[in-house]
Design brief:
By secondary structure, the protein is of the alpha/beta class. It has one domain: 3-Layer(aba) Sandwich (Carbamate kinase). The protein has helices at residues 4-21, 33-36, 38-53, 65-74, 90-114, 152-159, 182-193, 223-231, 239-251, 267-273, and strands at 25-30, 57-62, 81-82, 85-86, 119-123, 130-134, 143-149, 163-167, 169-171, 177-180, 197-202, 220-222, 256-261, 280-283. The longest helix is centred in the middle third of the chain and has 25 residues, at 90-114.
């Protein structure tokens, strides 16, 4: 049985990691099953608040695809996708903004507060945090890319002891709203903040040499090895943009990037505060 002595031992073993990361910024992209399952959501929120309480500076970036689909269906707007991207016409963009900024973001703020933290929700529009540009592919509407990050607002929130919670809606210089992939936003924001770590919560164990076999997890890669796995099509499908996001953030100065399984309870603390970790760590 896990008794009080075991609990104290675990906390003691975590001390070197806490000391190493105190005062450092960690950007977490929150999505997948960890957002849909109420128990997993609770553990992620507690992990985030724990990190803040021991001096780590977490920044939470979130998506919300399933919630967007739910509200599109309620409003009789059929969700459409092209080459893996959500087709975002004007009515869909209105729903995306309503859901991500008005519902998902503020729910996370509330959950952080309930867990004893101080969460502040923002989107790319606030403080000109994210400047968007069109993604460029025809027929997909208001799907954007990151043109620039102005991270001072997030820095100010962190300095004030708050946990920034960022939704990936942003505008271009003319004020047109765009929906941007949350992985991309997390990676670019991590780079702009000079973050110690970028962590992507996913529904896979990490990068696998055989995507059907969890025992083939690759625990650590550098940029060259990661690019090679993409070229060899070992990394394929939806893992390609996540891996490229990690590579880009590392190339811009982030110390390490992690792709971890958000379906594992307390995945964040397991990855940050233990030797073994649970996912794939990429380094420059």
């Amino acid at each position: 049985m896990f008794d009080v002595c075991d609990r104290v031992q675990v906390l003691s073993e975590a001390l070197p990691y806490i000391q190493a990361f105190t005062g450092r910024t960690v950007v977490v992209k929150y999505g997948g099953a960890a957002m849909k399952d109420s128990h997993l959501k609770s553990t992620v929120i507690r992990d985030i608040v724990f990190m803040a309480c021991v001096g780590i500076r977490p920044v939470l970036v979130h998506g919300g695809g399933p919630e967007i689909n739910l509200w599109l269906e309620k409003l009789n707007i059929a969700p459409q996708f092209m080459n893996g991207l959500r087709v975002t016409d004007a009515p869909t963009m209105d729903v995306v903004e309503m859901v991500l900024v008005g519902r998902v973001n503020k729910e996370l703020v509330s959950l952080i507060s309930q867990a004893g933290g101080s969460g502040v929700g923002v989107c790319g529009k606030d403080g000109n945090l994210i400047v968007a540009r069109p993604q460029g592919e025809s027929g997909i509407g208001f799907v954007g890319e990151v043109s620039a990050i102005n991270p001072q607002l997030v820095r100010d929130l962190l300095q004030g002891g708050h946990i920034p919670i960022v939704s990936s809606v942003a505008t271009d210089e003319a004020g047109q709203a765009y929906n941007i992939n949350a992985d991309t936003v997390a990676g670019e924001l991590a780079a702009a903040l000079g973050a110690e770590k970028l962590i992507l919560l996913t529904d896979t164990p990490g990068i696998l040499t055989d995507y059907q076999d969890p025992t083939t997890l690759i625990h650590q890669l550098d940029i060259r090895q990661a690019r090679s796995l993409i070229d060899q099509q070992v990394v394929s499908g939806g893992m390609i943009p996540k891996t490229l996001c990690c590579i880009r953030s590392l190339a811009q100065g982030v110390q390490s990037a992690h792709i971890i399984d958000g379906r594992v309870p307390h995945a964040l603390l397991l990855e940050i505060l233990t030797d073994a970790g649970i996912g794939t760590m990429l380094t420059a």
